[in-house]
Design a protein that fits this description.
The chain is of the alpha+beta class. It has two domains: about 80 residues, Outer Surface Protein A, domain 3 (Alpha-Beta Complex), CATH 3.90.930; about 80 residues, Ribosomal protein L6 (Outer Surface Protein A, domain 3, Alpha-Beta Complex), CATH 3.90.930. The chain contains three helices and 13 strands, in the order αββββββαββββββαβ. The strands form four sheets. It has a four-stranded antiparallel sheet with strand order 11-12-7-13, covered by helices on one side. The termini are far apart.
Length: about 180
């Protein structure tokens, strides 16, 4: 049995859960999420907590922990939400909001528009160098951040591009050049 799977998921105030067979719907102040799980897993709500139970077969151990982690992320997402922060490095590189969408200037001959998927909001600070992505679904927030980073990943010589806040960009030395001589 999975250690993580055994732990119950506590429900904070303001979060409502609806369990319909293998489908779990979680509703809270930040939004509503729904997911269908494996038919052999039993998901119950007991005393303000969600408990996941599996058959005694060892093959279900990994699925037990995964299911509990997904439910925990759903509950945390609708109550607190998730954020990812990206930083833009480079001369002339910047981002700005146009309505709900993000428009990036990344050294190309044209601006790059990024549409906000449903449930995702963008915010840009005053310096136009820090982008914050917020939403209730952890997977969607991470995927949108990865897609934006993929538009101009950081290059190793000058560090120009888009990177996660706190990400270490491994730098390389440039050409050594000719030292003296003809």
């Amino acid at each position: 049995m999975s250690r993580i799977g055994k732990m119950p998921v506590a429900l904070p105030k303001g979060v409502n859960v609806n369990i319909d067979g293998t489908t779990l719907k979680v509703k809270g102040p930040k939004g509503e999420l729904s997911q269908t799980f494996h038919r052999d897993l039993v998901i119950k709500q007991e005393d303000g907590k969600i408990v996941v139970q599996t058959p005694d077969d060892p093959a279900y151990s990994a699925m037990h922990g995964l299911t509990r982690a997904l439910i925990h992320n759903m509950v945390k997402g609708v109550s607190e939400g998730f954020t990812k922060t990206l930083e833009i490095e480079g001369v002339g590189y910047r981002g700005e909001l146009q309505g709900k969408n993000l428009v990036l200037a990344l050294g190309f001959s044209h601006p790059v528009p990024v549409e906000a998927p449903p449930g995702i909001t963008f915010s840009v600070d005053k310096s136009q160098r820090v982008i914050t992505i917020e939403g209730a679904d952890k997977q969607t927030v991470g995927q949108v951040a990865a897609n934006i980073r993929k538009l101009r990943p950081p290059e190793p010589y000058k560090g120009k591009g888009i990177h996660y806040q706190g990400e270490h960009v491994r730098r390389k030395a440039g050409k050594a050049g000719k030292a003296g001589g003809k």
